[in-house]
Amino acid sequence: MRRGFSLALLLTASCTVGPDYKRPAVDAPAAWQDGKAESASLADLEWWKLFGDPVLHELVGSALQANYDVRLALERVAEVRARLGFVKADLYPRLDAAAAAGVVRASRRESPLAPLIRDPDYQTYQLFGALSWELDLFGRIRRATEAERAALAASEEDLHAAMVSVIAEVSTAYLDVRDLDARVGIAKGTVESRKGYVDMARLRWEGGKTSELDFRQAEAELARTESVLTDLERQRAQRELDLAFLLGRNPSLIPRGKDINALPLPPQIPTGLPSDLLQRRPDIRSAEQQLVSANARIGEARALMYPTITLTGHAGYSSIKLSDFLKSPSGFWDLIGGITAPIWDWGKNQSRVDEAEARMKQAVILYERSIRNAFRDVEDALTTYRKSTERLASSGRRVTAQRSVLTLSESRYRGGVSPYLEVLDAQRELFNAELEQASSRRDQLVALVQLYRALGGGWSSGARNAPQ
Fold this sequence. Notes:
Blueprint: H1 2-12, H2 54-66, H3 68-88, E1 94-105, E2 121-135, H4 140-206, H5 212-246, H6 277-280, H7 282-303, E3 308-319, E4 331-340, H8 348-414, H9 420-454, H10 459-462
Antiparallel strand pairs: 1-2, 2-3, 3-4
Helix pairs in contact: 2-4, 3-4, 4-5, 4-7, 4-9, 5-9, 7-8, 8-9
C-alpha cells in the first residue's frame, strides 16, 4: 500500500519541461491593395460551382481520386500517423513473454561447492513475462508525442495543399484545352476564308484584272494560316496529354463541356480579410504545425538532461527438471526500479537542445515566409484578374475594329482603289486579333482559378472527394 502511494505521488509530481507553444505575432494588412476588406471570400465557394461545368467537375473529382501527388500525400499522412502510434506507445508499460530451454555446463571452478557437483551438465527450463516501463517524469515522451501529433496535422495540411494544387492545375489545363479548341476553330475558319481569297485572286489574275503577285500573296497567306493551325493542334494535343497525366490516366481524349466563352464568371469577386488566410491556406496551416512540432522537440531534448526512471519486472517459472517445471517452488518474480542521470556527456545533451532550438527558429522563419508569400499570391492574383479583364475588353474592341477594316479594305480592293497588300494586312490583323481575344478569355478564367487558389479555396470542399 505504501509502495503504491509512493508511486502515485511520484507520478503526480511529474512535469513537462520545455516551452509551451505560442503562435508568433503576425503583421497582417487590414485590407488588400487591389481590393476591399470584406468578410465574404471567393474561397467559400465550392470548386465545382466556380464555373458550373459538369465535365470540369467530373475531371477534378477524378483527379482528387487518382492524381499521383494526392495519393503520395495521402500515404505520407498514413506514414506519420503510424509514427505517432509508435512514439505514443512509449507512454505505457510494455509486457513481453519469453521462454527458454537448453543444457548448461557449470564450471567446477565457479564456487567452492562446484567440486561437489557430480554432473556439471544440467537442463534448464524457463517461462516468464517481462515488464518494462519508463516513467515520463519530465515529459520527454509527452513532448515527442506532441511533436509527432503536430507532424501528423502538418501532413494532413500538406494533403489539403496537394488537393488545392490539383484542383487549380486540372482547371487550368482544362481551360487551356478549351482555349485551344476555340483558337483551332478560329484558325480553321480563317483557313477556309483564305482559300476563298486564293480562288478570287486566281480568277482576277487569270481575267487580267490583277497581277500574279496578288495571287501568290494570297497563297502565301493561306500557307501561313495553315501553319498556325497545325501548331495550335499540336499545342492542344500536348495539353490534353498533360491533363490526362494529372488525372492519373493513360493518354486519351478529354471530354468537353461548356464552350470557353460560355463559362460564367461571378458578378463580384469577394476576397475576404487578409487575416483569414491564416486559417484558409493549407500551406500556412502546415507551416504552423511544423512550428508546433519543432517547439515540442525542444522539450524532448531538454528532458534528456534530467534523470530517467524505469521500472522492470519479471515473473514466471524456472526449473532444471521439466517434471518440476510448474510446481510451486519453481515460480519466481522480481520488480526493480532504476534511475539513470546524465553527469558528464561532453555537452552532447546541450548540443541536442541547441539543435532543436535552431530548428524551431527555422520553423518560425518558414512560417512567416509562408504568410508573406500568401499575401503576395493574393495581391498578384487580384491584379492579374483585373488586368486580364481589362485586356479582354480591349481585345474585343480590337476585333470589332479589325473586321470593319477588312470590310473596307475588300471594298477598296474590288473597286481598284487600293492594292491587295492592304487586304492582306487587314486579314492578318483580324486573325491575330481573334486569336488574342480567345487567349484573353483564357487568361481571365485562369486568373480567377489562381485567385481562388491563392485565397485557399478548394481543399475543405474537395476533401469530401479525396481518396480514403
